[in-house]
Amino acid sequence: MTVQTTAVTYQNFINNQWVNSTSEDLISSLNPANRNEIVGYIQNSTEEDVDRAVEAAKKAKKGWRKLSGAERGNYLYKIASVMEERHKEIAETLTKEMGKTLLEAKGETSRGIAILRYFAGEGMRDTGDVIPASDSKALMYTNRVPLGVAGIITPWNFPVAIPIWKMAPALIYGNTVVIKPAQEAAITAAKIIECMEEAGVPEGVVNLVTGRGSIVGQRIIEHTGVNGLTFTGSNKVGKSVAEGAVARGAKFQLEMGGKNPIIVADDADLEQAVEATISGGLRSTGQKCTATSRVIVQEGIYEQFRERLLERTREITVGDGMKDHVWMGPCVNENQLNTVLSYIETGKEEGATLSLGGERPRDPELENGFYVEPTIFEDVNQDMTIAQEEIFGPVLALMKVDTIEKALEMANDVTFGLSASIFTKNIDNMFEFIDEVEAGLVRVNFETAGVELQAPFGGMKDSSSGSREQGTAAKEFFTSIKTVYVKP
Ligand SMILES: NC(=O)C1=CN([C@@H]2O[C@H](COP(=O)(O)OP(=O)(O)OC[C@H]3O[C@@H](n4cnc5c(N)ncnc54)[C@H](O)[C@@H]3O)[C@@H](O)[C@H]2O)C=CC1
Ligand SMILES: O=C(O)CCC(=O)C(=O)O
C-alpha cells in the first residue's frame, strides 16, 4: 500500500518563479526507509525547461556581477539565517528523502549553513594582485572575474552540503546558477532554493531544474549559454561531462569516486583505528566518495583488530534514520541496494571470506526499505573486484600485510586517489605515507571521510579532474583572471 503522507509537488524555480515543467509530468520521490511512502513529487523536466533556466541566468548575469562582493555576501548571510530557522525541516526532509540518520542530516544542514557564511566572507577578500609593470608609470594588476552561468549537477549522497559548496562560491564570485540536483534528493534541494528566495536573491540568479540526468543534466552539459560545469557523481557520468565540456570549450570540474584505504600499522592505537574504520566506512551506509573501503592491516595487530572490528560492527543498529536509536539507515534506492548486493555476491564468488553481514536484514519491520547489513570481508586480495571498484555501500574489505611498504603499495594499486588514512605512532611511517600515498586527502590517525569546508577538497587519478573544491581553491574554478595594464 502506498502512503502519500505529504505528497507535496515541488516545481522548478526559473527566474524567481516556481513553475511546472513543460512536460507536465512528475517523478515521485520515495523514502528509502519505506518504499511505500512518497515524500513528494518533483518535475520531470525537459530540455526546454533547461533552456528557459539558462536564459534567465544569462539575463541576470550582468546585474549580479555588478554588485559588490560585500552585497553578494549579504545575500549569502541572509540565506544562511533563513536556513538556520528552517534547520529542523531541512534535516528531516534530507533523512526522509535520502535515508541517512537524522543526526547526520542535522550535522550536514549545519555544515551547509557554515559553508554559506564562509563564502559570504569571501565577498570582502582580495580578488587579485598588483604586479610591477616594466614601465614605471603603468599600473598592472590582476582581477578575478566570474565565468558567467555556472551549470551545477549534484549527487544524492550529500543533498545539502554538495549543492551549497558549489552554489555558494559560484554566487559570491559573481556567477549565476542553473542547478540540477539528483532526483533522489531534489526536494531537499528545492528547500534550499526556497531559502534563497526568502532571502531575496534577485531574479534569475539561481535557477533549479529537476528531473533525469540523461535529459536535464545532458542539456546543461551541451548548452552553449553555460560557461562552467561542476559535477559530483559517478565516473561514468563524469566522463561524459568532461567530453561535453571539452567539445564546446567550457570550463569544467569533476569530483567522482574513491576506493579509500586505511592502513593500520602494528603500533596503531587499536580502539582509535577500529572506531575510525567503522565511522569512515559505514556512516551514511558507506555512501560517501571518501568512505573507507579497503582496510589494510599489518599482521602483528591483525587478529586483535579483526576481533574488535567484528564486535563493534555487530553492535550497529540498522533502520529508519528518523529513529533515535538507529546508527545506519538504508541505501538510497533499490538500484543502489542491488549494486551493493551484487558486489557482495562477486566478493564471495571470487574467494573472499564473508565474515559478517552480506544480506538484507531479516527484521520484518525493515522489509520495505532498501536495507543491507554492515558487511565485512576477509582474505581479500588486490585482484578482486571488491578491492578495485567503488561499491558505495557498507562493505569493508580486510587485507593482511607484513610490512608498511607493502601496505602502501596496495593502497596505491587502484585507479582512484581520493582519500587515504594511516593509523600509526611511528613518525617515519607517517611521513613516508604522507609522501607516497596517491590521494588528494591524506589523514594520519584520522578517518578517511569528512572534509573541512575551509580546505581544498579533491582527488588524484580517476577521482577528480585534478581541480579542487571548497576553501580558497573554489575561486580557481569559479573565476577567470583578467590581467589589466593601465597607462595614464
Ligand atoms: N562521488 C560521489 O560523491 C558519488 C558517487 N556516486 C557513484 O555513482 C554510482 C551511481 O550513482 P548515481 O546516482 O547513478 O550517480 P550519477 O553519476 O548517475 O548521478 C550524479 C548526478 O548526475 C546526473 N546524471 C546522470 N546521468 C547524467 C547524464 N547522462 N548527463 C548529465 N547528468 C547526469 C544525475 O541525475 C545526478 O544529478 C554510485 O554507486 C557511486 O559509486 C554516486 C553519487 C555520488
Ligand atoms: O566526506 C565528506 O564529508 C564529503 C564526501 C563527499 O564529498 C562525497 O561523498 O561526495
TrEMBL record:
InterPro entries linked: Ald_DH/histidinol_DH, Ald_DH_C, Ald_DH_CS_CYS, Ald_DH_CS_GLU, Ald_DH_N, Aldehyde_DH_dom, AlphKGSA_gudD
Any Pfam family hit: Aldedh
PROSITE patterns listed in its UniProt record: ALDEHYDE_DEHYDR_CYS, ALDEHYDE_DEHYDR_GLU
Catalytic site positions: E255
Keywords assigned: Oxidoreductase
Residue ranges annotated for the Aldehyde dehydrogenase domain, each copy included: 18-484
Family statement drawn from the similarity comment of this UniProt entry: Belongs to the aldehyde dehydrogenase family.
PANTHER family: ALDEHYDE DEHYDROGENASE-RELATED
Official protein name in the record: Aldehyde dehydrogenase family protein
Organism: Halobacillus naozhouensis
